[in-house]
Amino acid sequence: MAEIEIKTAPADFRFPTTNQTRHCFTRYVEFHRCVSAKGDEAAECEKFAKYYRSLCPAEWVDRWNEQRENGTFAGPL
Amino acid sequence: MILRSLSCRFLTIALCDAAEPWQLGSQDAATPMMQGIIDLHHDIFFFLILILVFVSRMLVRALWHFNEQTNPIPQRIVHGTTIEIIRTIFPSVILLFIAIPSFALLYSMDGVLVDPAITIKAIGHQWYRTYEYSDYNSSDEQSLTFDSYTIPEDDPELGQSRLLEVDNRVVVPAKTHLRMIVTPADVPHSWAVPSSGVKCDAVPGRSNLTSISVQREGVYYGQCSEIRGTNHAFTPIVVEAVTLKDYADWVSNQLILQTN
Ligand SMILES: [Cu+2]
User: Fold this and answer.
1) B118-259 — its CATH code?
2) Rounded CA separation B171/B174 (Å)
3) What pLDDT tens digit does each residue of chain B (260 aa) get?
4) Cβ contact A56–B113 (<8 Å)
5) CA-CA distance, A52 to A31, in Å (whole number)?
6) What residue stretches are annotated with the Cytochrome oxidase subunit II copper A binding domain (chain B) (predicted)?
7) Min CA distance, B20 vs chain A (Å)?
8) More exposed terminus of chain A, fewer Cβ within 10 Å: N or C?
9) Do residue A6 and residue B118 have CB atoms under 8 angstroms apart?
């Protein structure tokens, strides 16, 4: 049985409130900016991916991925 | 029934982690937050009784003494500086004594800046909940997610609570900081577990955070608390707190099950 790692996105002082919508969105944008700056295989981007996957509902991620493909994503990429 | 709920209150045979028939008080605390809420309730009740006794005494005394037979000519006092100062200062002091512990609790419940160990997403649907454990994902493909439906009214097994039990419980580790991300996929819902002292609204297009740390292993029951239409009553919440080791085993089992 593979050992699993108990670890998640850390608390972020930029988002100290109950409303964490921006936290998830910001992490998603950060990941894609990191990828476009450092290339697809950059290891340091992987942590942002882990963060946004932890924080964002899957449905939102799917929708944003679709929007990015169509070029209609609203965030600063 | 009343006896059962009284024994639930006073003779702690088993701790009270689900709603009881005829229950008057809170369910037993499973998190420091709920303990704080119960303690605050008791603190405020002290002042409540004090005020109740004082006001009742004044009221009864006034009715007893100032009537036509005993006091035919009423006194006409329209002003009194001393009493006015006293009746302004004294209630403010009482309010202060209530406000201090109340705000302390309120801000401690906000504990957003504590690093959690696990993030669990509770997504409300009409009429079930989806739980996503996405800390173990290696791609946008979900690896550990499941739906939690209520057990229908006509087939609970012996010992299961009617409309309170679900088919897939949320498994969480005890004594660990959890970050619950609460959001719905359709209409407003609410994720509420009384023993944990948590009631978090699920608002469409927004994700709300609530952090809990369950202190003892057990099964905790809650219900959707955003009753805006039919069937919200049939989306209960069941949290099963286990040891960290059992949690890790459960996660790896689920991962194996869901990837195959
Ligand atoms: Cu609901």
Assistant:
1) 2.60.40.420
2) 10
3) 455 555 555 555 567 777 778 888 888 889 999 999 999 999 999 999 999 999 999 999 988 888 888 888 877 878 889 989 999 999 999 999 999 999 999 888 876 667 889 999 999 998 899 999 988 887 777 778 889 998 887 776 777 778 888 889 999 999 999 999 999 998 999 999 999 999 999 999 999 999 899 999 999 999 898 888 788 888 899 999 999 999 999 998 888 887 76
4) no
5) 8
6) 115-253
7) 30
8) N
9) yes
**Interface confidence (ipTM) of the complex:** 0.86
Could you tell me which of B189, B68, B63, B191 has the C-alpha nearest to residue B126? Answer: B189
In chain B, where the domains are located: 32-110, 118-259
To the nearest whole Å, the CA of B190 is away from the closest chain A CA by 14
Q: What is the pLDDT of residues B39-59, one digit of tens each?
A: 999 999 999 999 999 999 999
List of domains in chain A = 21-70 (1.10.10.140)
Q: Distance from the CA of B123 to the center of ligand 1, in angstroms?
A: 10
Contact list in B for residue A40 (CB cut-off 8 A) is: none
Closest CA to B200 of A62, A17, A57: A17
Please tell me what DSSP assigns to residue B219: E
What is the pTM for the complete model shown? 0.83
- Nearest-angstrom CA–CA distance, B252 and B45: 47
- Among residues 96-155 of chain B, which lie with CB inside 8 Å of chain A? 110, 112-119, 121, 123, 132, 134-137, 140, 142, 145
CB–CB contact A61 B135 (8 Å): no
The amino acid that residue B51 corresponds to is: I
Per-residue pLDDT 10s for chain A (77 aa) are 456 778 888 888 888 888 999 999 999 999 999 888 887 777 888 888 889 999 999 999 999 999 999 988 887 87
At A35, the amino acid letter reads: V
Cα-to-centroid distance, B128 and ligand 1 (Å): 8
